[in-house]
Amino acid sequence: MKKAAPTSRRKGRPSAEESIRKLENLLEVARLQFSRHGYRAVTMRGVAEAADVSTRTLYNRYADKLALFKACIDAGAAAFPAPQMDLAAKPRDTLYRFAVDIVRQLSTETSMSLGILVFREGQDFPELLQAAEANQDTYLVQPLAGYLRRHGLEQASSSDRAKLFIAMAISEFQRRTTFGRPLQTRQELEDHARLATTLFLNGAGKSVDPGGRR
Fold first, then answer.
1. Nearest to 76 by CA among 33, 37, 27
2. Does 60 fall in a domain?
3. For 14-29, what is each residue's pLDDT tens digit?
């Protein structure tokens, strides 16, 4: 008696597992497309083809190219550091580590490419600047502001000092990328983070309303 030939899944329609894998890969592909070609040149059809999904599937998840770009930078921001909320840890140590981790994340190839994209095309597409600013506020500024307030280093309902510390932490990184200089070595990065932390704490501790300090 002959054995029944093994049945195979029909070609053309992906399995549920394949569909999930493609969708997970979608943002990674889109980030590479934006990084390599710039915002203006990228099309939704091109991203769909590169990610091997249908254009309809892409539009079902992201209404337009701006929504896709926002999703890309939000996905990248998931790797951004967050200050330790452990009040037992010294602010000096926490802020130092936070400063180091910010620059390390910004120094990745994809983060740098997307940052350059926003800088170059932001005048023609101001919505990119708005998206990047909102992303930084959500994933960096507000978490840090909350941490500083708990330690009496930020005014209530304010994020000015959080923005200042972030600016201090990334200032040397920004200077080098602006003028085409080599990025900081590990030792240079750590030295700068230590200096930024020291200067910030020496000033912030004296400029916050004493009534709001712990």
1. 27
2. yes
3. 676 776 677 678 999 9
